[in-house]
UniProtKB/TrEMBL annotation, chains A, B:
<feature type="binding site">
    <location>
        <position position="221"/>
    </location>
    <ligand>
        <name>substrate</name>
    </ligand>
</feature>
<dbReference type="GO" id="GO:0009098">
    <property type="term" value="P:L-leucine biosynthetic process"/>
</dbReference>
<feature type="site" description="Important for catalysis">
    <location>
        <position position="189"/>
    </location>
</feature>
<comment type="subunit">
    <text>Homodimer.</text>
</comment>
<feature type="site" description="Important for catalysis">
    <location>
        <position position="140"/>
    </location>
</feature>
<comment type="pathway">
    <text>Amino-acid biosynthesis; L-leucine biosynthesis; L-leucine from 3-methyl-2-oxobutanoate: step 3/4.</text>
</comment>
<feature type="binding site">
    <location>
        <position position="133"/>
    </location>
    <ligand>
        <name>substrate</name>
    </ligand>
</feature>
<keyword id="KW-0432">Leucine biosynthesis</keyword>
<dbReference type="GO" id="GO:0051287">
    <property type="term" value="F:NAD binding"/>
</dbReference>
<feature type="binding site">
    <location>
        <begin position="74"/>
        <end position="87"/>
    </location>
    <ligand>
        <name>NAD(+)</name>
    </ligand>
</feature>
<keyword id="KW-0464">Manganese</keyword>
<protein>
    <recommendedName>
        <fullName>3-isopropylmalate dehydrogenase</fullName>
        <ecNumber>1.1.1.85</ecNumber>
    </recommendedName>
</protein>
<feature type="binding site">
    <location>
        <position position="94"/>
    </location>
    <ligand>
        <name>substrate</name>
    </ligand>
</feature>
<feature type="domain" description="Isopropylmalate dehydrogenase-like">
    <location>
        <begin position="3"/>
        <end position="350"/>
    </location>
</feature>
<keyword id="KW-0479">Metal-binding</keyword>
<feature type="binding site">
    <location>
        <begin position="279"/>
        <end position="291"/>
    </location>
    <ligand>
        <name>NAD(+)</name>
    </ligand>
</feature>
<dbReference type="GO" id="GO:0003862">
    <property type="term" value="F:3-isopropylmalate dehydrogenase activity"/>
</dbReference>
Length: 354, 354
């Protein structure tokens, strides 16, 4: 029995989740079908429970074999105080499930190469790298305080990292590189930050265990340049939480097709969280316009990493490739000469090709 | 009497400084010439004094009307412990001179538009914005500590901001926007950081004083995307130190000609620091190859902001434009059909056009 948690999400997210679920239904073993559990997190949970992730919903997530998420948030919840904002639910889910490693691929789909904002001479060299982002440490989870000092407010965010936190994400970085082109770049700011200097120290120890992986470090400001200048140089980037947030969004942008990018967040157990990297697109909610591919590919990653169903994962990915080859495109990736389809029809086409 | 401090810098920096000084010599008032003082900072100071900014050199800098810097650092000093690294001298100079506002323009030169890594349809919409970066607060100058906790090392960088620090950079942001296209975007991460929430609070107060400026906020991860996706949307970006470091490097990269970009760092007094945003290019030191234009344009900014010599500043900028129109290029900006010149000859050409 394989237990899958479904977080339907906000805005246009339920529409992409519906297509991903159709794909999961189609690919499951009929004699041992998936057992689904709906989990409320984000805006939906705020509306229902006044809390973006009540304990009972986190408990449900913890009881699954894997969790699939669309996307959360939207203008409706913008004015709420910090702890009640949808994003807070996501941060608490990451922490509660102990998902310390977030994989964000940046890859140009040959069928969609034109969509990149970068020049052809750059994209022609190829873009295919992964950012392995530490997800439950650093400034996201450090102590925060705002207090009055000498008659004015002073806010402080602490950015902490401990050796074991760095080591476990470091191992994921090296292991990921080992399975790919064996090149790992650790991005930091060790000319300024103590945490970065600890990252360097731990990685200098780790690299001895992975002599087959070519290892180097790069300053975060330089990395922000190099991703635009020559993304073909990267295979695997490993970095701390906040730098990973910034660089992975930049990296997704240069592919030109954010609606295509899945991601996985994993921890010590097999129970990970799989989600598109794009947002909840509330502006097009309910219009059958949103691209379901990133969510469907997230489901594929879930099968591969969370449920040991490599073959089924590959089948889904191949179906997506075929649909792109056939020229079907949702509005976000549509170009002259291709066939515009809605969310549901994109789901239909992928199902046909399964 | 106008007192100018010259920090000759490391690597190929002395070569660009030499050209900038020739331009300053040519443009000065012969009856009231500039008085120059050489200041050692960075690698040069490490070599001479074992300290990247000894107090006597900082004192010299503080006694000037303005300071011009090339660039510092290089592989020679890479292995040194933190406090002895060249960069530490720069950070201490910024702090010592109280330079809280760093202006980093991102502008496409029409003559060099081809050099951008972005597609023509994006650069055609125009790239002309400024990043106003807070320069002496945040994680750069917060408390840092690495200590043993439960048998392992834990490092913590504090990221502090107080209301008055935010307010003074906020004012520079609004004032800068007012002198331009009147659009200010404050970049933060207020869904995660307490400091960002304090930035929002202070800016919400400030914006009432600048009703003529269109004000909005943007998350730093989104900003990293938007700079690549549609840079024409930006006029002025104001942000905290670390985000400014990352985004301004990304922004300079999309112009495709980092060797052209000057910057200014200013504080409460007129005595500011003016420098190219590029590094010290040690790999081409002594080869008469490095592009002196960013340093010469930094000298122009110094005349404009530090020495009240707007007319002379504009003359220098026009001379640079003319030389580009005439087709002269150093190696970093050379393209088919233009004339390759060395560092010195580029200086000659600019002097001719003054
Ligand atoms: C919503 C936000 C808190 C989150 C983050 O910063 O981690 C998002 O930007 C992401 O990258 O998943
Ligand atoms: C050298 C380094 C400390 C510095 C910084 O991070 O501020 C540099 O990257 C810059 O942007 O001027």
């Amino acid at each position: 029995m394989k237990k899958i948690g479904l977080i339907w999400g906000d805005g246009s997210s339920p529409e992409i989740m519906a297509q991903a679920k159709r794909v999961l239904d189609a690919i499951q073993d009929p004699v041992d079908p998936f057992v689904y559990t709906d989990i409320a997190m984000g805006g939906e949970a705020v509306d229902k429970y006044g809390d973006p992730l009540p304990q009972h919903e986190l408990d449900k997530a913890l009881a699954q074999d894997s969790v699939l998420l669309g996307a959360i948030g939207g203008p409706k919840w913008e004015g709420l105080p910090g702890p009640q904002r949808p994003e807070k639910g996501l941060l608490r889910l990451r922490e509660g499930m102990e998902l310390f490693a977030n994989d964000r691929p940046a890859k140009i789909w040959p069928q969609l190469a034109d969509a990149s904002p970068l020049k052809k001479e750059i994209t022609d060299k190829g873009i295919d790298f992964v950012i392995v982002r530490e997800l439950i440490g650093g400034a996201y989870f450090g102590k925060k305080e705002t207090k009055e000092v000498n008659g004015e407010l002073v806010a402080v965010d602490e950015m902490p990292y401990s050796e074991h936190e760095i080591e476990r994400i470091g191992r994921i970085g090296f292991e990921t590189a080992r399975k790919r082109r064996k090149k790992l770049v650790m991005v930091d700011k060790h000319n300024v930050l103590d945490t970065s200097r600890l990252w360097v120290k731990v990685f200098d120890r780790l690299k001895e265990e992975y002599p087959d992986v070519e290892y180097s470090t790069m300053f975060v400001d330089n990395a922000a340049m190099q991703i635009v200048k020559d993304p073909s140089q990267f295979d695997v980037i490993v970095t701390e939480n906040l730098f990973g947030d910034i660089l992975s969004d930049e990296a997704s942008q240069i592919t030109g097709s954010i609606g295509m990018i899945p991601s996985s967040s994993r921890g010590k157990t097999k129970n990970g969280l799989y989600e598109p990297i794009h947002g909840s697109a509330p502006d097009i909610a309910g219009q059958d316009k949103v691209n379901p591919i990133a969510c469907i590919l997230s489901a594929a990653l879930m099968l591969r990493y969370g449920l040991d169903m490599e073959e089924e994962a590959a089948r889904i990915e191949q179906a997506v490739e075929k649909v792109l080859d056939q020229g079907y495109r949702t509005a976000d990736i549509w170009t002259e000469g291709t066939t515009l389809v809605g969310t549901k029809e994109m789901g239909d086409r992928i199902l046909e090709n399964l």
